[in-house]
Design goal:
The chain has one domain (about 10-170): Peptide Deformylase (Alpha-Beta Complex), CATH 3.90.45. It has about 170 residues and is an alpha+beta fold. The chain has helices spanning about 30-45, 130-145, 155-170; strands at about 50, 60-65, 75-85, 90-95, 105-110, 110-115, 125-130. It is about 25% helix and about 25% strand. It has a five-stranded antiparallel beta sheet with strand order 1-2-3-6-7. A two-stranded antiparallel ribbon has the order 4-5. A hairpin with an 8-residue loop joins β2 (about 60-65) and β3 (about 75-85). Bound molecules: nickel (II) ion. Nickel (II) ion binds near residues 96 and 97.
């Protein structure tokens, strides 16, 4: 297993819409790549990691949102994800491995139903709440070239951009 380099904002791949994973792309190579993504995410102590964050402009992501109750743990790979239903609302702090050291409040929906393909190419549907819902929305955004900065209120985005500049100047961004 390999730890892949994580790219940081404003790397263009983070702002590009990912290409769908084709039917002919499923197989051993993709499976290995997804295992590398899981390892990279764990190594960086993240709960979600999308392919564009490791420089691959494709629609897929991994997630692992642990809970105190192990049965509530959501560890998945979602390939060609689609959000098919959202409801409710949650407000909470969000971070992103492509924005090291930046945390900001982002409003998201509370419940999400998503449809995707698993590593075997089978259609799956998952229905999650809270952190897992936040994670799916955040990572599906990455597949669409959208970063969490785009989901902040204009004022918070302004604060965040200033903080990024400071982090870049002090060499804490690369
Ligand atoms: Ni992110």
């Amino acid at each position: 297993m390999a730890i892949l380099p994580i790219v940081h904002y404003p790397e263009p791949v983070l702002l590009t819409v990912g290409k769908p994973v084709g039917e002919d792309e499923f197989g051993e190579e993709l499976t290995r790549y997804v295992e590398d993504m899981f390892a990279t995410m764990a190594d960086a102590h993240g709960v979600g990691l999308a392919a564009p964050q490791v420089g691959l402009s494709k629609r897929l992501f991994v997630m692992d949102t642990p809970e105190t109750d192990e049965r509530a743990r959501e560890r998945h790979v979602l390939i060609n994800p689609e959000i098919i239903h959202v409801e409710g609302e949650q407000n909470g702090d969000e971070g992103c491995l492509s924005f090291p050291g930046l945390y900001q409040t982002v409003r998201r929906e509370m419940r999400v139903i998503a449809r995707a393909q698993n590593i075997k190419g089978e259609q799956v549907e998952i229905d999650v709440q809270d952190l897992a819902a936040r994670c799916i929305l955040h990572e599906t955004d990455h597949c669409d070239g959208i970063v969490f900065l785009d989901r902040m209120t204009p004022l918070k985005r302004q604060f965040a951009k200033r903080k990024i500049k400071t982090l870049q100047k002090t060499g804490k961004w690369n």
